[in-house]
What does this fold into?
Amino acid sequence: MATASSAPKSTTFDRSIVEGPIISAVWMIAWPSVLQNVIGGMQGVIDHAMVGRFVGFSGNAAVGVAFQIFLVVIVFVMSIYTGMGVLVARFAGANDAAAVNRTVYQAFLATIVLALCVMAPVGWLLSPMLLDLVNAAPSVQVEALPYLRTMFVGGVGMMLMFMLGGALRSAGDARTGLRLGVAMTLLNVCFNIIFIRGLGPIPAMGVMGAALGTVLAGLIVSAYGFWRLLSGHLVIHWEREMDWRWDWTIIKQLFRFGLPAGIQGIAMNVAGVLLLRYIGSLENSAQAQAAFAVGYSELFSFITWTSVGLMGATAAVAGQNLGAGKPERVERTVQIASRMGLGIALTIGLLFLTIPRFLLGLFGMEDPIVLALGTQLLGWLSVSGLFITTALTYSGGLTGTGDTKAPLFITLVSQVAIPIGMLTVIQLSRPLQPTDVWMAILAGHMMRALLSVQRFKSGRWREIRIDVGRVTV
It folds into this structure.
């Protein structure tokens, strides 16, 4: 149901998303989203691979630990993008361009304030304490501290990239985000070559160089993306006649739908940090942290990147179809996306089982203990991937339709209570073993998939409405 606004309507949105074959609509948004996530995630792979070659496994551990901590803060700040995606998809489904443009502009204003006034100063001050919290080894902390502080101060470019790509995807244009992601990754590779290993008069910076390359690439590409938006070359664009003031009604809706996702993201990443703490208590903790950083944070990310891409595509297509008043197409969208994710997860999982040492070797993993732990972890993750892709695609259906609270509670149970509770109980009875941590990860993913499917099938998302005063969808 939609109530027309007084703003002029636009016909620039791709109506095949809400009118054409559903599998084509999902594929049209999914393949650029998945590929963008894989290419964007390759930045982390490149960082780890080059750091592993030129610094060693302590450098890999430093990047893995520092980036995990960085995610805890950045995910909360970027929670407004979930709210933005819900609104943009609904308004695009209702074919209201003015509401779409206004929503994205308000998300931009909020990003600038949160990044520069909250994330940068708080992150800089708390970085040493956060590294202590995860039990990072002293040699790891030395490398991780400058990396972490650089990411906190300069991460606004990366955030704006996520914002623009998410807004365009929700509006039906996933290809522009893909092109920007490719450009950002290529720039990051070039900067890594220069800063990590050194080039000419520029000295080798090691782990710090990886952070600097990521920050500069994000700032440059996000600036170019917003130039294209302002020049009117994208489906979303800001015009001079637009009201440039804060719109607190829209801001309230951004946080209404986004805040649960932000808390969910923090919960997941706090759970990740706690896992690092448990891993830090293992025998050979530095080697275990390096195996986890490469096996889970990087190699397993080939499953999570694709699944998150499918989740974003599912959210966009589901949101647009609900905005167009077609809930039956929402259900079909989630089913199709889930099948795509299972196919990808099964393929990657087979690689984990058949060539684990080769995959770990790509990151400079040569220490025998690291190789043994990494191979063991990949075996567990080959099964876990089937559950996490199911969970994420169904979460995309929930989030895209505006049911952002349910994934929060599901996360608290499956990603925090179950794995952390298991490890706490085990540690009280005997010393932890690496397999205890790997088993806890799998148990959490299994529960998350089960609860996400059950919640979506309950159909409560059908009744959610958005009201920003001028528009109700």
Confidence is low (pLDDT under 50) at residues 1-11. The chain is about 80% helix and 0% strand.
